[in-house]
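Structure (tokenized):
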């Protein structure tokens, strides 16, 4: 088992995306802080995964394609676009993957690779938000389109049992 952090959009969306993949053992949803100018907490998840089932490179690629990784919008302090690493090796690898994926995007990727410094878990009633509330308007209107896109672009990585309800609509 390994772990990595991701931030970039609402943590309910990010949690749903990573919870829907094969090889994911656990997703903790809340707020992550880094160091320096990124000490403020920002919505994010910590993903525990089995690298024998899904690679870190694939997780980073999925992350870039499932949030606005090239948009420096006004909500970036709340939704920092980042990969939060737990070691120097993981940091270097993540930077290399992002660089290698840049050619797939027309605009510069703004996603930063930052050291994980601190994490605050969301309150219990908001954890596993999508899978506990798939009928809520936010889930229907915001999360479902992202999950449909995930199913199209990364179909081999998706746990189809978890998302079978989307293919029925």
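Design, position by position:
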């Amino acid at each position: 088992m390994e772990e990595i952090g991701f931030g970039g959009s609402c943590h309910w969306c990010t949690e749903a995306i990573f919870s829907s993949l094969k090889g994911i053992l656990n997703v903790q949803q809340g707020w992550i802080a880094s160091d320096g100018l990124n000490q403020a907490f920002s919505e994010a998840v910590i993903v525990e995964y089995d690298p024998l089932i899904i690679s870190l490179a694939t997780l980073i690629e999925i992350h870039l394609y499932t949030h606005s990784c090239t948009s420096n919008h006004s909500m970036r302090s709340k939704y920092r676009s980042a990969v939060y690493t737990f070691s120097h090796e993981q940091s270097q690898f993540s930077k290399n993957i992002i660089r290698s994926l840049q050619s797939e995007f027309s605009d510069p990727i703004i996603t930063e690779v930052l050291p994980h410094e601190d994490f605050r878990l969301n309150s219990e009633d908001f954890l596993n938000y999508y899978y506990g509330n798939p009928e809520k308007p936010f889930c229907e209107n915001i999360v479902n389109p992202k999950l449909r896109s995930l199913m199209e672009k990364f179909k081999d990585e998706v746990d189809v049992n978890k998302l079978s309800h989307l293919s029925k609509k």
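Reviewer-requested clarification: The mean pLDDT is 93. Helices lie at 11-19, 56-65, 88-101, 129-132, 137-153, 164-167.
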